[in-house]
Amino acid sequence: MKNESLTIKSNGTHEIEIKKSRFICTMERIETEDQAKNIIAKVSKENAKANHNCFAYMLGDDDHIQRESDNGEPSGTAGVPILEVLKMNELHNVLAVVTRYFGGIKLGAGGLIRAYSNATSTTIDSLGIVKLVNKQELTLTIDYNQFDKLKYFLEQESIPIEATNYTDKIDVVIAVSDAGFDALITQITNLLSDQFSYKKGKYKIFEVPYSREDRQNDENK
């Protein structure tokens, strides 16, 4: 996967009502097209009496797989608006199925586009977004009298301690991105007067909360 990507915090559903029509959005993380197809089939079966089960999803490290379906709605009024919301939010490996129970009042093409877009975007707001960050474990070996100083520094830098192992010295396990590695080692070297050692470990995916403010900051970089 990419070193960083965005996805939904959790799978779930959210419902809105527009002019007596119910729009129920089911959103899930996916890894393969087969998984996406199975979820679409499951939602469609569970909502067999619904008028439409429209969907869109993006897959792949560069989101090269993009699928959408209007499922009987006028062309371009459902699947594409759902997909555009996923793209606008840069959601990676995510499927959205929007089920519509018709309420008897026609919405028109523009109204449908807004309804399917709103059903998708409000579901994203409801579930939340996280950033998936590929980080490498880093074990810092220090003396006991250095622990409080290092712990305070890590807290100030918002770097969680993943594990702490006590022997004749203390092994403090943290995780760091490739981009921030050299700068962090320099900071810790200065902090501890170069009286420590470190060892790189395996890479893991960490989920970091991601807010609208974070998006604005990313866009302003």
Structure commentary:
The radius of gyration is 23 Å and the shape is elongated. Helices cover 35% and strands 37% of the residues. Strand 8 and strand 9 form a beta hairpin. The chain is built from 6 helices and 10 strands, in the order βββαββαβαβαββαβα. With 221 residues, the chain is α+β, with helices and mostly antiparallel strands.
- What percent of residues are in strands? 35-45%
* Assigned CATH class of the largest domain: Alpha Beta
CATH superfamily of the largest domain: Impact, N-terminal domain
Question: Count of DSSP helices?
Answer: 6
- The 3D shape can be described as elongated
Q: How many beta-strand runs?
A: 10
The name of the CATH architecture of the largest domain is: 2-Layer Sandwich
Q: Give the radius of gyration.
A: 23 Å
Protein name: YigZ family protein
GO biological process, one term: regulation of translational initiation
Family: Belongs to the IMPACT family.
Organism: Lentilactobacillus sunkii DSM 19904
